[in-house]
């Protein structure tokens, strides 16, 4: 039986043929240029790092997460992940509309907007996304790491979000470096002495228990069997 941390995780990317068609259609849609954090959120949505999310969260999911720490499905989730936009853009969008999401010149995804609401003076959009391509500065994906663990036979992997305690880890370890600009160094990830340095673009929203829980979910989605935050 294949270990759980080696089984492929669902992604939100469409087929290359569908991506080509949707890219052409996306040129006619309202386009939102993502901030760096939004681009990293979208990347983790598309590649499965934020599984089980299927897009930017709805108002109902956000309310349930804020109140109970879980999605309306019952799945544990610690923090809202929404697409926050300015009032001018929000004024042109209604539930049922599709919008194009880009990180500048590149169209990354199509989002089908289902929710449009405000809280604390911020306008949020929620809805499922269809991934077309990863951002130019994309990090390691869950399935890349899971495939690597399958090839190397790593069934028990400890993930650390900093180097503290790395020397005490017995067996394979994954050191996660979540700072976005570190992803630009494509030569950096490597395997040495059962340690893999993973580049995962996860922005810290706060330093609290909810962020610790989010790091654990992302680490486990990327193939870790235990996570030290």
The percent range for strand residues is 15-25%
Overall number of structural domains: 2
Structural class, from secondary structure content? alpha/beta
Give the CATH H-level superfamily of the largest domain: Sulfate adenylyltransferase
Q: Quote the distance from N terminus to C terminus.
A: 29 Å
Characterize the overall form. globular
CATH C-level label of the largest domain: Alpha Beta
Gyration radius, to the nearest Å?
18 Å
Strand and helix order? HEHEHEHEEEHEEEEHE
Overall mean pLDDT stands at 89
Q: What is the CATH topology descriptor of the largest domain?
A: Sulfate adenylyltransferase
Uncertain runs with pLDDT below 50, 5 residues or more? 179-188
Oligomer: single chain
Main sheet attributes: strand count, strand direction, barrel closure: 6 strands, mixed
The number of helical runs is 6
DSSP summary, beta strand count: 11
Portion in helices: 25-40%
Pfam families: PUA_2
Organism: Paracoccus onubensis
Protein name: ATP-sulfurylase PUA-like domain-containing protein
InterPro entries: ATP-Sase_PUA-like_dom (IPR025980), PUA-like_sf (IPR015947)
């Amino acid at each position: 039986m294949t270990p759980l941390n080696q089984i492929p995780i669902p992604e939100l990317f469409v087929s290359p043929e569908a991506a080509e068609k949707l890219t052409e259609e996306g040129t006619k849609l309202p386009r939102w240029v993502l901030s760096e954090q939004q681009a990293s959120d979208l990347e983790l949505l598309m590649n499965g790092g934020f599984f089980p999310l299927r897009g930017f969260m709805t108002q109902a999911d956000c309310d349930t997460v804020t109140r109970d720490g879980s999605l309306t499905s019952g799945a544990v989730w610690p923090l809202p992940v929404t697409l926050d936009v300015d009032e001018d853009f929000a004024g042109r969008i209604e539930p049922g509309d599709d919008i194009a999401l880009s990180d500048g010149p590149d169209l990354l995804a199509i989002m089908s907007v289902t929710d449009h609401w405000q809280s604390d003076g911020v306008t949020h959009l929620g809805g499922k996304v269809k991934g077309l391509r990863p951002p130019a500065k994309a990090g390691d994906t869950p399935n890349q790491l899971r495939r690597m663990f399958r090839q190397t036979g790593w069934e028990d992997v400890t993930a650390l979000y900093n180097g503290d305690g790395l020397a005490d880890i017995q067996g394979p370890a994954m050191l996660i470096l979540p700072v976005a600009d570190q992803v630009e160094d494509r030569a950096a990830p490597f395997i040495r002495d059962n340690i893999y340095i993973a580049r995962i673009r996860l922005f810290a929203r706060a330093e609290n228990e909810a962020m610790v829980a989010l790091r654990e979910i992302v680490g486990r989605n990327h193939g870790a069997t235990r996570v030290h935050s």
